[in-house]
Amino acid sequence: MTLCSVQSDQEARLNSTYVHPGRALSLLLDRILTQGNLAFVDGTSHELRHFGDGTGPEVVIGLTPGAARRIAANPDLALGEAFVDGTLVLMRGTLAEFFALLFRNQAALALSQSNMSNVALRLKRRFQQANARLRARRNVEHHYDLSNELYRLFLDRDLQYSCAYYADPGMTLEDAQRAKKRHLISKLLLEPGQRVLDIGCGWGGMALEVAAAERVSVLGVTLSVEQLDVARKRATMSNARFELTDYRDVEGRFDRIVSVGMFEHVGVPNYDAFFRKVAELLTDDGVAVIHSIGRKDGPDITNPWIEKYIFPGGYIPALSEVLPAIERAGLWVTDIEILRLHYAETLLEWQRRFHAHRDQIAQLYDERFCRMWDFYLAASESAFRHQGHMNFQIQLARRVDVVPLTRDYITDNDRAAADTVAAAA
Q1: pLDDT tens for residues 67-119?
Q2: Residue 121 lies in a domain
Q3: Which among 143, 194, 323, 425 is least buried, having the fewest CB atoms inside 10 angstroms?
């Protein structure tokens, strides 16, 4: 099959500069791609060189010899770099199809990590995730202190930058994010007069929703200057206030604690300190709810490309590393809920909105930034669809008798909140 019979105008233009990937990468792909349908453009013969068993959508890529060598040597890092630099180009197929193909061969693709000793793995994780106060602040600045306008262009109106809750498959992103906040509030069991702490409050949406749900006072803490500015402007008529504070420096006692999408930035070496702090801050009859991304396959390391370019210091934990730290802090785990595929649907909608505003985002930054975020958002969606990523919500308490003995109250509270919203519409 010749390239001429299938190529588009873009393929014809790229054909002269994007050549066969090289022997090392070809040998690697022959070994690891046992399923799917991937092809490289061979710039010498103008043919497509196929890998996999031919099943599924055909994905065709072109890449320079230098990119091929780098990917063969370090695929976890170099693949994303090549896409962002434009030295790897998708000539047929989408990023979603490309990642789905790779993840179909997941066992074979885990080469670099499977060859690491347990000692090397622990050392690398400890170095990546130290996250002392100054480093934590810099890591937050890297990602969350980008232009607020960027986030307004692809998030929902409330600027919820975490997994939505699709209680109904037909929900809009706005509806699903509102349902997520209601679901967490249902687990908090709010009562008038309580003090609530929101650790990692983002742009303030969750804290403001809590303050509106019940007559409580809310303190939201963040390390992002940009997020703090927006949160404070939104809080002028609310019982919520916001501070630029590390969670380790918060003082006082709180009846309720909520944390959404922040625990991924704590770092494994700090899990004991985090949950000891939660236990210290909670009143004796207090309740905390932690919402975080998780992984089902046990401890691992952060993907090198994501760690370097998107979330330095970030890590997606396994429950097997979180629960022992909770136990050592002396807290009760009163509920755990696993959200499967909700984040995949959230990320799919973020990508749709990102692409709809791509020209505006390119004006804010540049085309390279857009390609970087294309890769980040598509890879993240695929991880939740194919790679064992999920979200968990853990409810914690200091005492065994603080929350009801069955989970019925969560559904009852969700439905009551939904009815209130419907009646007000």
Answers
A1: 888 998 898 999 999 999 999 999 999 999 999 999 888 765 664 444 444 55
A2: no
A3: 425
